[in-house]
Amino acid sequence: MIDSRQINGFSRLSKDEQRRWLTEHFLHPEQAAELTRFDAGDEGLQGVIDNFSENTVANFPMPFGVAPNFVVNGETYAVPMVIEESSVVAAAAAAAKYWMTRGGFRTEVIAAEKLGQLHFRWSGHPDRRAALLPALCTRVRAQTKAFTERMETRGGGVRNITWKHLPEVSDDCYQLLVSFGTADSMGANFINTVLEAYGHELRNWALDCPELTADERELEVIMAILSNNTPNCVVKAWVECPIENMAIPIGGVDPFDFARRFKYAVDIAREDPYRAVTHNKGIMNGVDAVVLATGNDFRAIEAATHAFAARDGKYRSLSQCRIDNDMFRFELTLPLALGTVGGLTKLHPLAKVALDILGRPGVHELMGVMAAAGLAQNFAALRSLVTTGIQKGHMKMHLQNILSSLDATAVERTKTTERFVGKTVSHHGVREYLEGLR
Ligand code: MEV
Question: Domain range holding 206?
Fold first, then answer.
């Protein structure tokens, strides 16, 4: 007996039918009203949004904010950020403004290479790889030219091919590890297309390569896919200034004391994985917000970043702090495999606007701005943590969210905000105060 809440062919229903079915089986009618509340009200636009995914029964709005005053490599940016967590945009803006008058952010793209893997089983001996690889490379490159030509004219294409043996999996398990340049695109489709074509050619090579013995002709392609591990697609961002210029507008903390405590906090995150994960989460608050705003793939960025953070076998902070001769330097190095053309960057109207706000950057420029946003966020979080504590800033926004959830009027908001200055904010406390007012 099939559960009445299971269904075949859901994807073939119209959007209205899907909503009706969902309401009937999973929602109260008043809850279901929320599904339609955020409709674009413009058929063309709604169609664009619906086409991003499948079974779309509603739009899910997120705030699109801007953090102004980011000076990156001498250019001033207003950085678009899509994020639901309160305080993140405010913190980024505050850190950007702080560094604006202290030389701004500097960035450098260390490398911009993407990777893909083709896994296969092959009956030949691993020692034969070195002799066979050059001809194999020439063949697969030549036979897949149709897929790479356009990218080559844009400065990208296939860079290197290595042939690895993976005896940990099985004696006959091999991998072609292919590196790519993908110009200003993220390149996922390009890489996957080329790799699948390589898979096809690899089979043909095994069938008719004259240097292979009959025993060596057995080759089974298992899978072809890009790698989201991008340790060679890396950007560095940093800020630096003499510590004496680091007076901070919070509680008149001595700058030397502040710099010492700040570095100490970063050092803790270098060595303790529990702290490092939280520390890096703070960095990703800034990075992901710009990744989302610009229509990039935040899951890919997240996966790559955390692999990078653990690249020496221990999970560490992505940022480092140095104090030399009373100079403070704070830097962040992270992998960012991005695109500024193609994919969602071309389709999502607000991703387009985000890129317009940034002045239509190329990929290298966007990597720099994003890394600066991550560093700013990390700076702001640590600045709060080692001075006032994080809750002071958070509570202001938290209070506003509690007031929204309690449907506070403008007058109630003003009164409650005044009442809670310098006080601990709790949902219970705010509700009680509001009830008193009402
Ligand atoms: C909160 O979203 C991020 C922080 O926890 C980061 C940190 O602790 O460094 C404040």
Answer: 114-227
Q: Are residues 405 and 378 in the same domain?
A: no
Residues 15, 394, 396, 415: which is the catalytic one? 394
* Amino acid 251: pLDDT: 62
CA 366 to chain centre: 12
The reply to whether 251 and 375 lie within a common domain is yes
Say yes or no: CB of residue 390 within 6 Å of ligand 1. yes
Structural domain count of the chain = 4
Do 181 and 207 lie in a common domain?
yes
Say whether 69 sits in a helix, a strand or coil: strand
SS3 325: coil
How confident is the model over 228-250, as pLDDT tens digits?
999 999 999 999 999 999 987 66
pLDDT of residue 358: 98
**Options 85, 244, 326, 432, the catalytic residue:** 85
Which of these, 161, 212, 221, 211, lies nearest to 191 by C-alpha position? 161
279 Cα nearest atom in ligand 1: 9
**211 domain-assigned:** yes
394 catalytic, yes or no? yes
Sheet harboring 157-165: ordered strands across? 157-165, 173-181, 114-122, 219-227
Residue scoring higher pLDDT (342 or 273): 273
Give pLDDT, residue 327. Answer: 98
Any residues with CB less than 8 A from the CB of 109 and at least 6 apart, and which?
Answer: 234, 235, 364, 367, 368
Residue 252 has pLDDT above 80, yes or no: no
Compute the average pLDDT of residues 168-193.
97
Q: What is the pTM of this model?
A: 0.91
Give the contacts of 28 (CB within 8 A, at least 6 positions apart): none
Q: Cα-flanking dihedrals φ and ψ of residue 427, to 5°?
A: -55, -45
CB distance 381 to ligand 1 below 6 Å: yes
Within-domain flag for 3? no
297 labelled catalytic: yes
Is the shortest distance between the CB of 399 and ligand 1 below 6 Å? no
